[in-house]
Amino acid sequence: MINTVRNTVMAIINKDNNGYITPDEFNLFAKQAQLEIFEQYFYDYTNWVNKRNSRLANDGYSDIQKQISETIDSFSDQATLTYNSGAGAFPAPADSYFVNVLLYGNKEIEYVAQTKIMNLISSNLTTPNVSYPAYYTKEQFFYVYPTTIQTNVSALYVRYPVDPKWTYTVVSGSPIFNQSAGDYQDFELPQSAQNDLVFKILSYAGVNIRENDVVQFAMAGENTEQTKQS
Q1: What pTM was estimated for this model as a whole?
Q2: In this predicted model, what pLDDT tens digit does every residue of 12-26 receive, in sequence order?
């Protein structure tokens, strides 16, 4: 998909000789566009949940909530966490957007707000143990109790998408798409996001080459796509 998106972007930019963006600039814009759309899925999902609860959403082919949920699920991952003795905690996976569940072996570790963890620990009745562990999170670290738990902890989480990269070889002074390059990376978003990617990248490119017409075209396209999804 990334080559199709780039060809579309370049065709629109070059239509009236508006300017040119380099492969590195395109990759930078592509990364930001993908991240924006990825994060928007979570807001859209919440919006559609609210619509369903208000009986304003339909099932069947128009079940957008289900489609968004399936897209988000495609970024689900699991990782074993490595204890950081200096911090006395487990760092979150480097690519995590948010963590759904923390596990000790096969046991789910109960999340407790940091402001309440000391009350939990100080009570003989509720103090965490290896059968009923607990944790709080702070600055991308997970503090697990009892503190004797330093291994066999894993996280079920939603990861960020991998940065896209349009790779190329130079032929007669021009960059030509090379999908076989070792660092090639397509977009991780579904095909349905292609138009959104084009318009968002065009918006960044228009600002970069200082072409207001390109920016306005991109904004109009984004508004059209948002109307279709609302």
Answers
A1: 0.77
A2: 887 655 567 899 999
